[in-house]
Amino acid sequence: MLRTLVMDVVCLLIPVDLLGLLKWRSNTSLLQQNLRQLMKVDGGEVVKFLQDTLDALFNIMMENSDSDTFDTLVFDALVFIIGLIADRKFQHFNPVLETYIRKHFSATLAYTKLTKVLKNYVENAEKLTEQLLMAMKALEYIFKFIVRSRVLFNQ
């Protein structure tokens, strides 16, 4: 009962847009909208719930492994989060992201989906200039996720 009460209080503190993403399984019909809305949430709120947000993104990707419906939106959301952490304002969350990749990240097939979206952006650079530019800025961490995913897959 106490745990439920604590969770209810925490949910009241999370912005509605972020909460929609974190509770994505409860209403999958709003998933695309919630992924788009994530990129409008205040950066301070996103980094407060960094691990939960990353877990949600990769769970969405992996639980829809037979489809590429959400891959681009998840990729863009991941690039958005990496961009936040690259910002001077949130640089102190860099070690949190590094630790997440090394110790908590577990999406063994994410490398295929991340690589596919990145390849699409490169191949269609003329049409997707802005998306490709944002992805290039986040490339270091995109590759860290790809490499870690592939290592986990091989194990």
Automatic annotation (TrEMBL):
UniProt superkingdom: Eukaryota
Keywords, comma-separated and alphabetical: Coiled coil, Signal
Signal peptide: 1-20
InterPro entries in the cross-refs: DOCK, TPR_DOCK
Domain Dedicator of cytokinesis TPR repeats region: 28-155
Keyword Coiled coil applies: yes
Keyword check for Signal: yes
Ranges in a coiled coil: 111-138
PANTHER family: DEDICATOR OF CYTOKINESIS, DEDICATOR OF CYTOKINESIS PROTEIN 1
Record protein name field: Dedicator of cytokinesis protein 1
Protein's organism: Ameca splendens
Designated gene of the protein: DOCK1_2
